[in-house]
Amino acid sequence: MRSLAALIVLTSISAVASAQEKTEPVIELKTVGDKVSYAVGLNIGRNLQQQGLDVDIKLLTAGIVASLAGTEPALTNEEIQAALVEYQAEQTKASTQIVQKFLEDNAKKKGVKQTKSGMQYLVLREGSGEKPTTKSTVSTHYRGMLVNGNVFDESYKGDAPTEADRPVSFGVTQVIAGWTEALQMMKVGAKYRLFIPPELAYGERGQATIPPNSLLIFDIELVGVK
């Protein structure tokens, strides 16, 4: 709950900054403090875009003004906590419905298979080399995407890896559960597309640019096994 509350406070700051920018289109950054303030605002704005948090700007502004002015807030601490709990429950329910609908539709597509854990995958290319175990260290190329197509991480740029792109190495059990499962199904040279539900990825906590309860899509190529 603390992380969500912090996010709402930061959103308030971003909203105020946004309103100021509309009335003052020319921004002067004269001091280091000015630049830091602007940089923090940019980072908050980018984070809010990734979170997709839908809020009322006027109410956000009223909340932050009340806090800074030290006036009596419109909500008690108990009411704030109750609202945050209810909001998180609503967001979790909505995310769960989106994931379920995606997996139901995706399961009907040609070539898509599903494991007992609920992970779906599509074989883009079969391999012919060694198959890793839980004790193996692997080298991979990959691209990770959200359901909306946004890429949150990748080991290469462009349509495919080039000689300049370095594969990423890690232990088979040092990654999310969906990867651990999939890697043990692959042989060196294989390329799979994984559709990993939240419970096999980052679940309710999310991770950096990955919102909570997100289904993740990975194109992963197994380059080598040690």
List strands and helices in order, with pairings.
Elements: H1 2-23, H2 32-51, H3 57-69, H4 77-106, E1 112-114, E2 120-125, E3 137-145, E4 151-154, E5 168-171, H5 177-183, E6 191-196, E7 216-225
Antiparallel strand pairs: 1-2, 2-6, 3-4, 3-5, 3-7, 6-7
Quick tags:
single chain; 226 residues; alpha+beta; Chitinase A, domain 3; 2 domains; seven-stranded antiparallel sheet; globular; disordered N terminus
Instruction: Please state the overall shape, judged from the principal axes of the Cα atoms.
Output: globular
Strand content: 15-25%
Mean pLDDT figure:
86
Contiguous helical run count: 5
Q: Considering DSSP H and I runs of 4 or more, what fraction of the residues is helical? A: 40-55%
CATH hierarchy class name of the largest domain: Alpha Beta
Number of strands: 7
Compute the gyration radius: what is it?
22 Å
Oligomer: single chain
* Count of distinct structural domains: 2
Largest sheet: 7 strands, antiparallel
**What is the CA-CA span between the terminal residues?**
41 Å
Uncertain parts: 1-10
How would you characterize the overall build of this protein?
The chain has helices at 2-23, 32-51, 57-69, 77-106, 177-183; strands spanning 112-114, 120-125, 137-145, 151-154, 168-171, 191-196, 216-225. It is α+β, with helices and mostly antiparallel strands and 226 residues long. It has two domains: 2-74; 102-225, Chitinase A, domain 3, CATH 3.10.50.40. The radius of gyration is 22 Å and the shape is globular. Residues 1-10 have low confidence and may be disordered. It is built from five helices and seven strands. The longest helix has 30 residues, at 77-106. Strands 1, 2, 3, 4, 5, 6 and 7 form a seven-stranded antiparallel β-sheet that branches. Helix 1 crosses helix 2 and helix 1 (2-23) packs across helix 3.
